[in-house]
Amino acid sequence: MNKIIQEVTDRIIERSKATRKAYLEKIERAREKGPHRGVLSCGNLAHGFAACSSQQKQDLTALTKANVGMISAYNDMLSAHQPYEVYPDKIRAAVEKVGSVAQFAGGVPAMCDGVTQGQPGMDLSLMSRDVIAMSAAVGLSHNMFDSAVMMGICDKIVPGLVMSALSFGHLPFVFIPAGPMESGIPNKEKARVRQLYAQGKVGRDELLESESKSYHSAGTCTFYGTANSNQLVVEVMGLHLPGSSFVNPGTELREALTEAAAIQATRITDLGTDYMPIGHIVDEKSVVNGIVALLATGGSTNHTMHLVAMAKSAGIIVNWDDFDALSSATPLLTKIYPNGQADINHFQAAGGMALLIKELLRGGLVHNDVNTICGKGLDKYTKEPVIRDGKLEWVEAPEKSLDPEVLATIETPFKADGGLSVLDGNLGRAVIKTSSLREGRTHVKAPAVVFESQHDLDGAFQAGDLDKDCVVVVRYQGPRAVGMPELHKLTPPLGVLQDKGYKVALVTDGRMSGASGKVPAAIHLYPEALDGGLIAKVQNGDLIEIDAENNLVKLHVSDEELAKRTVTPKDLSAEREGMGREMFNGLRQMLTTSEEGASCVFHEA
Predict the structure, then answer these.
(1) Mean pLDDT score, 56-85
(2) CA 506, CA 538: separation in Å to the nearest integer?
(3) pLDDT band at residue 45 using 50, 70 and 90 as cut-offs
(4) What helix, strand, coil percent values describe the chain, rounded to 5?
(5) Distance from C-alpha of 473 to C-alpha of 463, rounded to nearest angstrom
(6) pTM to 2 decimal places
């Protein structure tokens, strides 16, 4: 193993000793009760299988056949999740083939950040992760299941499903993806039209035509944002079948993988000899593997919160210093938009997950002594699925990349590190994604221009007030303020300013996530403005420095001057109602800091 990666792993193991021990004891107590239908009263059980066939009732009563619960985030509006409409019937049929039973346990909400971007609904986005975790827990709480399959893909949905699954850590879980849509217009062209629209050089019709050619069919959006980062991370953590993350919907291979995943969920229950609960898969080494794979591919910064929350659900304590240290030891092996022009289909064609994992193993960058839904180790994950003579098989991946401009080797990486840094300074702690930044853009020192809403920036941009070197500060966007919305509406105008030759950066207690691009952005800053963070005292013209090379985010104002300044907190009442936001006021106040996962689900009774 790489020395730094081993040291970080050992540090996490030591830090998590007490909490991990308590977690493992908890799931062992749950396991000792045996197949859970066995503890149900006759009335309970009768309700649980009332709608089943006579044969299924016999199978479930005998406690010798597996009952697989299904949790789905299906809805028609998310292109990534629309294929899940027909999955329950496919899974039932596959499970029935091997003599077991599958029951739909429940659906969870699934919002599309692409639809809500820059809209009031985006304020619910991050909080929806915890709602998803709790919703899935309700579905699984009936004590009817020997294992479960989880159907989800996008931003907050997979992390929420993982968190929920880990609360039922004594059960096996198989995560089933649905795959990315086929490639649309080049990402460079999409970004070009967005910037032209921001400058008023093209109209809404041209913009909509461009966007529609990019997001055009069923399947996951093809850029490398949080949705595709989710798929990559859970596969490396051993919760997908090998090579299943990025197979397009509606293909013969996709259908075969779905059937195989459903059957695998029956093979690893406690009713047989291959018992593999999720609580024994997701351990400290598995979490490190997920972080390393994320960093090696320039994945979503949202996972600096999601992976923290997922790990904590398994009794594992991870912080941003771990991310920073792992990034220093992890070479950047892919160029997928926004870190390059290729999309996720190009990555798949270049060798995909199998070749990536093979490279990571070869470089001693991921642990191989881990559990997966397919057994011990990641060796099976260095093979790729194919259909031969109508049957699903796994074959050796290519020995080298089929497109070195998209997927590199550990000897010739695109960058020596993983492109993520943790910033620290008098403003607080933040993260910055550097993998997408052009050379020389990692250090900006310029006067602040302060906004308290992302919507206020448009007017200043159109008026030319931002035509200068500046650090744009957008505050009162943190978890407890408004739920920490993504601020991608800022990306096109800031990109235009950068292209004009100005040194521009962003500092915010909000999010930019997986689509973070070429503008240096110190995001997830805490303490947030609402909690008295120094960002609340920043004034227009104050000098702010962001230095990703030296891990610095600093306000260059004297302590004496800062002591004189008073803060009038922003009135957030208008941003806490409408579009359902008022229903989340209580939950919002319980959210932890971004480095603690920005979650409400870990409060002790």
Answers:
(1) 88
(2) 13
(3) confident
(4) 45, 15, 40
(5) 18
(6) 0.94
